[in-house]
Amino acid sequence: MKRLLLFLIIPVITGSLSGQDIEKQPVSQKPVLYEKLYLHTDRDLYSTGDTIWFKSYLVSGMTNKLIEGYKNIYVQLVESGGKVVANRLLLSVNGESKGDIAIPDSINDGQYTLRVFTKYLKNFGEESLFHKRIWISTPKSSLNLEFTQEENTDPIDVMFFPEGGNLVLNAVNYVAFKAVDSSGKGIGVKGQIMDGDGNIINSFESGFMGMGKFVLMPSEGKTYYAKVEGYPRFLYRFENILENGVSIHYSDEGADVLVSVIRNIKKQGAQKFYLAGSHKGVVLFQKEIELNDINYTEVIGKNRFPLGISKISLLDTDFHIIAERLVFISDGDFNNVDIEIDKEEFRTREKVNININPRFEESDTIKGNFSVSVVNDNYMGSNGNTLSLQSYLLIDSDLKGAIESPARYFSNDEGMAAEKKLDLLMMVQGWRSYYWDEIIKKASEDLDGWDDAGLTISGHVSRLLRDKPVVGGEVVIGPFS
């Protein structure tokens, strides 16, 4: 008897903001023409002779809704050295297509990449294309397909990210950090913040994927260092602490969010700023504020933000950005369907009945498009589910750089809720790496490939001898036996 795991993936549908939510917009931009691609495969681990089954989802980059009409989807299987070993051309119909790649017995064992794109997406560079790693090996039991790492004794690296972008003197600064090993994987650490006299100012400890945060309030004439327990050679010095700088702090308060503007407590006089929120280049709100005290706090309803990553910016009166912070806005419920099966255990090739019940109001008319993978429960190995449609559309495709195990950010752990994981990701991975800043610049250009659909065949018909044209000849293209 075998126990089964079901993986269900559906497109994410975002809401939209009404014009009443938008105030003055001196830097507002119109929505850009952009698309996203996701390839759902039946699994990640394959043997030679297997078939890779997949389904593609082509959605609007702005709304995450399926794109209507016809579009060519290009799928490549690429070996680790960069050689393309298989190509497939799919026709996306109203945002969906499906296909397969038969893996030849002669293929080498190792890690491969599924590279998926449209001609239009290639205008935006390699980072806009969809990539998924898979592993191919000679036939083995799934019990043997564990991807373990040897114990790493190399030095670690710890990176520090002040919230808003800068450390400010005599101000409460929230600082995020991430510790990684030599392979770039997050690693758990503990440490202390010390001043130049060796006094412990604060302690820190990572909570998820090597990430965490702490508070630091630097004073004049002092230097500050970070030390990590168990790594006596690691010493990080905090530099570029601004006397006249301003930082921002974000906190989630359920139905609302709080955004605080913080400055040096010794700073005197009023300062005027603009506090703005934007989503994929479109300004959601902008308000002129005046800072008379050491901080200013604005309460903003979550209903002013679409689902996903948005950007909160603090600008001076000349509209120069002086502090910035990415935030992830959600309703806290990342599962919008319930899945039930008629029993827990099944025999080989036994019929499985699945009930899918959406968690929407009965009057809701939203339609879903589904694809399901069924695998043995020990197929996942030690790494767990590393990628999903949800994580790709909402975080992977909006941030630059690789994200370690992105699907895990949408599940609650015993030690940390999904919302807190995502907020750490925004402070660390989202620090100066919002991919939409680059998309907006390129999308304003006249780009090719948006209308790419189907095949174009051209040529001429001539007689077999002497190459003379066939007047009134007819060409038929179709299947042949």
Helical residue percent band? under 10%
Our estimate of the beta-strand percent is 35-45%
Number of strands: 29
End-to-end separation: 43 Å
| Low-confidence runs | 1-28, 147-152
- Count helical runs: 3
Largest sheet: 5 strands, mixed
Net shape: globular
Q: For the largest beta sheet, what order do the strands appear in spatially?
A: 3-9-8-5-6
Radius of gyration: 26 Å
Structural class: mainly beta
Arithmetic mean pLDDT: 85
3D structure, described in words:
The chain is mainly β and about 475 residues long. The protein is built from three helices and 29 strands. The protein has helices spanning about 390-395, 420-430, 435-445; strands at about 1-10, 35-40, 45, 50-60, 70-80, 85-95, 95-100, 110-115, 130-135, 155-160, 165-170, 175-180, 190-195, 200-205, 210-215, 225-230, 230-240, 240, 245-255, 255-265, 270-280, 280-290, 295-300, 310-315, 320-330, 335-340, 345, 355-360, 370-375. Strand 13 and strand 14 (about 200-205) form a beta hairpin. It is globular and about 90 Å long.
